[in-house]
Amino acid sequence: MTDAFRDNTTRARFELETEGLLSFADYRREPGRLVIPHVESDPALRGQGAAGRLMAQIAEVARAEDCKIVPICSYAAAWLKRNDPGLIG
After folding, report:
1. What does DSSP assign to residue 48?
2. Are 61 and 9 in contact (CB under 8 A)?
3. How far apart are CA 58 and CA 53, in angstroms?
4. Which residues of 36-60 are buried (b: 16+ CB within 10 A; e: fewer)?
């Protein structure tokens, strides 16, 4: 399974393409914070960990930019709580 991650600044969302299917997380940038109001995966990708891989990439972006993530989306909040609680801001 091959993933391609990108920051689609035109649509203000992070995207992870897996086998031609898309997972995405809408975002809003604020000083020192990355607000994530919504995460979604193509129904065919559900249960395959695509959204988790997307969140892992977003966590890398947050660390690289030295910012915290404000998870409005319940999936993003749960993922961060389980995997990287230090990034929650």
Report:
1. T
2. no
3. 9
4. beebbbbeebeebebbbbbbebbbe
User: Which tokens sit at 88?
Assistant: 């929650």
Domains of the chain: 3-87 (3.40.630.30)
Q: Distance between alpha carbon 54 and the CA centroid of its chain, in Å?
A: 5
Of 3, 43, 1, 57, nearest to 76 by C-alpha is: 57
- Which tens digit of pLDDT belongs to each residue from 28-44? 999 999 999 999 999 99
pTM value surpassing 0.85: yes
The separation between the first and the last C-alpha atoms of the chain, rounded to the nearest angstrom, is: 32
DSSP 8-state assignment for residue 75: H
Alpha-carbon 57 to chain mean position: 7
